[in-house]
Write a structure and sequence with these properties.
This protein has 26 helices and 24 strands. It is of the alpha/beta class and 765 residues long. It has 5 domains: 178 residues, 3-Layer(aba) Sandwich (Rossmann fold); 162 residues, Rossmann fold (3-Layer(aba) Sandwich), CATH 3.40.50.300; 54 residues, no CATH class; 110 residues, no CATH class; 83 residues, no CATH class.
């Protein structure tokens, strides 16, 4: 590191003004252009000025780690002492600080928890909210909380910092006049409009030696560009380095290395703020990001145009140590708006995403989300939707009081529905809690299987037909034993497997479980897991109509079933609605309205969990070939519609159950033989007939004394299933009994003459 680098930063000229403003005011707003050194220098100034602890929030873990490393180096040079105990960081799952730490970098989510639980900023300490312009949910609450603290506690001090911020509007919100503007570095960054990102990158590879940072919407686009550049990059010796949140720390750190022929970094918006890669001299920007939004009440992932402020942030990644260039260019056929046509600032997260978890977090500390004075107020519809979800999950009462379930859910750092699942099994055996934690870890990373037409080999790794969540657990267990290449060949997302493993380790720590390899789910555990999954998705129940589309039980929203589902022929499902925006071959953007993470819901589940929803009409006991057990088939009325549903398997081993199993299995087997005979009769003249009595006699001999096929050996189970086939009763002469093949009826019709009045279409047409 250059020993005089921090002495040349623009913030140095404002050191006294910043410290004086913090001394005199509770709230100070600091706007500093990119490269000014606000994230590294301002905390040091305040610590050297005498504040016992400076807590600096960051929106991302990577930023907290790297800022800590950089400031430790600068502090050691400034004060000629080891700074490992003076400078530290904390995230939700990492900690590198001590009792002597004066400057503490925290992820904003962790600091929010600290503030709300009363262990945040105290005494002669300063809270620094950095990169406020990102306006994620945590930052929104921290800003609103800071305003409340400043009104109630005269000792509380907060500094609001960003490179792109509407400082005057924020000053009016806090009622402060302490606004400081710091210019950036004086290395010029030129702007120009490019044509296409791939064309721009190939031109860079023709003249290697530059360090280029390229912003793309998401991981899939990063992979596509990596594949396109791979051959050319290898020839020129320029490394192509991906950078996104799902990479391991070691992989992320490669972006900060020096390479003799330069480097090309392909990044999501993770490198947009707080992450300083000093040697970047050119930024190529797609002007896009993939972000979560709620549209029509459903959260989804959409490709969106970034704001002017975000463009400025990205441009500021260049020109740190030398003049740079910013190129705004289209990616593939996706649209790329000119800078002047973009919104000035992006829509804050609290105004475009689901806020049920945020609502519950605030309610747990006695704060009604409707009372808190946000800088950006969430819509009334969003608040109503969040509270309705929490009521459906049993986390809140209609009066707004948090229930015991809600207090337990808040302890788990997962989505509300997954938190509800964990609460449901908190008193169950350890094996069940381990399996559910693993299942949730897989879902938290977006699943581990691909949905493409050719990515179906993973289906051979599971026999599950009732729950996508259980199916992906089976796939995950198998994937742990595979190489990356084998995973990808089978349609398994290798990176997500690794990420799920990380999340799983975290959840195991949070739940106090001993980390070990995932085990096969026992039959008795499976039923408990299915119930827990359904409980977490009770607010999203879907009826499958005759066209195979899912219709929401209460909202009547119609959606397509996810292509990755293993569930077939179910009438009622629990699943999460999700919208996914994808580019088409024509260059347009198409939104897929899906229901994913499906689980079959039985009549018994409804009766136990949501008895107010339905009226039972009648029920009969039948054999269910999917489970191998007897089940109650119920005809129920939900609102104005009638649905046929299977109940829970009958597992009572009584003489009555055994007799019923033989009888109902025989009825099912006879129905299969009739169906087979009907299909054969279309093509053959004489098809053997089998009576119900004959089938009953055969079944009684084979299945005496059992209540399910699970009680049989594999060999005997195959023999029992064979009783549903016509050839079992016809014997070796089965083919001969079929008789002479029938002439194709359609062919016969085509040969003959059809009278004019019976013709479907006129000949001249």
């Amino acid at each position: 590191m250059n020993s005089s680098a921090f002495h040349q930063l623009p913030t140095l000229d404002f050191k006294d003004a910043i410290c004086d403003a913090v001394d005199r005011n509770q709230v100070v707003i600091l706007t500093a252009e990119t490269g000014a050194g606000k994230s590294t220098q301002v905390p040091q100034y305040l610590a050297e000025h005498g504040y016992t602890r400076v807590i600096v929030t960051q929106p991302r873990i990577l930023a907290a780690r790297n800022l800590t490393k950089r400031v430790r180096e600068e502090w050691a040079e400034r004060h000629t002492e080891d700074a490992s105990e003076v400078i530290g960081y904390r995230t939700a799952h990492e900690r590198d600080d001590s009792g002597r730490t004066q400057i503490l970098y925290c992820t904003d989510g962790l600091q929010l928890v600290r503030e709300l639980t009363g262990v945040g900023t105290q005494g002669k300490q300063v809270l620094v909210l950095d990169e406020v312009h990102e306006w994620n949910d945590n930052m929104e609450v921290l800003v609103a909380w800071s305003k409340l603290r400043a009104e109630e506690d005269p000792q509380f001090k907060v500094v609001i910092m960003s490179a792109t911020l509407d400082d005057q509007s924020l000053a009016e919100y806090f009622g402060t006049t302490a606004v400081i503007k710091v210019p950036g570095r004086h290395h010029e960054v030129t702007w120009r409009k490019g044509e296409n990102i791939l064309d721009e990158l190939f031109r860079q590879l023709d003249n290697p030696g530059r360090n280029i940072l390229t912003f793309l919407p998401g991981k899939s686009e990063i992979q596509d560009v990596t594949d396109a550049l791979a051959k050319k990059a290898e020839e020129t010796g320029v490394p192509i380095i991906p950078l996104h949140s799902q990479l391991e720390l070691e992989e992320q750190q490669k972006a900060f290395g020096s390479y003799p022929n330069g480097k090309i970094i392909l990044s999501t918006n993770i490198a947009q703020t707080s992450v300083t890669i000093d040697d970047i001299d050119r930024v190529i920007d797609s002007g896009l990001e993939r972000r979560a939004e709620v549209r029509s009440g459903v959260e989804g992932l959409f490709i969106a145009q970034i704001s002017q402020a975000d463009c400025s942030q990205r441009a500021g990644r260049a020109g740190r140590t030398k003049p740079g260039e910013y190129i705004l260019a289209a990616y593939d056929t996706l649209p790329c708006l000119p800078f002047e046509e973009r919104d000035e600032y992006q829509v804050p997260e609290i105004m475009r995403t689901l806020i049920d978890r945020l609502t519950l977090r605030l309610a747990n500390v006695g704060l009604d989300i409707e009372i808190l004075d946000f800088y950006h107020d969430p819509s009334r519809a969003a608040i109503k939707r969040a509270k309705r979800t929490l009521i459906d999950l049993g986390a809140m009462t209609r009066a707004g009081e948090v229930t015991n379930i809600g207090r337990a859910m808040e302890k788990f750092p997962v989505e509300s529905s997954y938190g509800r699942m964990l609460v449901e099994v908190q008193d169950e055996p350890e094996s069940i809690r381990e399996a559910l934690a693993s299942i949730i870890a897989i879902q938290e990373v977006g699943g581990i299987v691909k949905s493409g037409v050719y990515a179906i080999s993973w289906r051979g790794l599971t026999s599950e037909q009732e729950s996508d969540l259980l199916a992906q657990y089976d796939v995950y267990r198998a994937a742990l034993m595979m190489s990356d290449d084998d995973r990808e060949a089978m349609g398994i997302i290798s990176k997500n497997v690794e990420k799920a493993t990380e999340v799983r380790e975290r959840l195991f720590r949070d739940l106090g479980l001993i980390l070990k390899e995932p085990e096969n789910i026992k039959h008795e555990d499976r039923q408990v897991l299915l119930r827990a999954i359904i409980v977490g998705q009770l607010h999203h129940l879907w009826v499958v109509n005759e066209w195979g589309r899912a219709v929401h039980l209460t909202a009547k929203d119609s959606r397509e079933l996810s292509k990755t589902t293993v569930v077939k022929r179910a009438k009622l499902l629990a699943g999460a609605p999700f919208d996914l925006q994808v580019p088409t071959r024509s260059g347009d953007l198409e939104t897929l309205h899906l229901v994913q993470d499906l689980t079959v819901v039985t009549a018994t589940d409804l009766e136990k969990l949501k008895p107010e929803l339905f009226k039972n009409i009648r029920a009969v006991v039948v054999y269910d070939p999917r489970s191998g057990y007897l089940v109650e088939k119920k005809l129920i009325r939900v609102g104005k519609q009638t649905i046929e549903l299977f109940g829970a398997p009958i597992t009572d081993d009584t003489s009555k159950s055994r007799r019923a199993f033989v009888r109902q299995f025989a009825v099912w087997a006879h129905r299969q033989t009739e169906r087979q005979g009907y299909n054969l009769s279309k093509y053959h003249r004489r098809v053997p007939q089998v009576s119900l009595r004959e089938v009953e006699q055969a079944v009684a001999q084979s299945l005496q004394g059992v209540i399910s096929l699970d009680q049989l050996t594999a060999e005997n189970k195959q023999k029992a299933i064979a009783l549903s086939r016509l050839e079992t009763y016809a014997g070796d002469d089965f083919i001969r009994h079929l008789g002479k093949p029938r002439r194709d009826q359609h062919e016969k019709r085509r040969r003959g003459w059809t009278p004019k009045h019976k013709r479907k279409y006129k000949r001249d047409n």
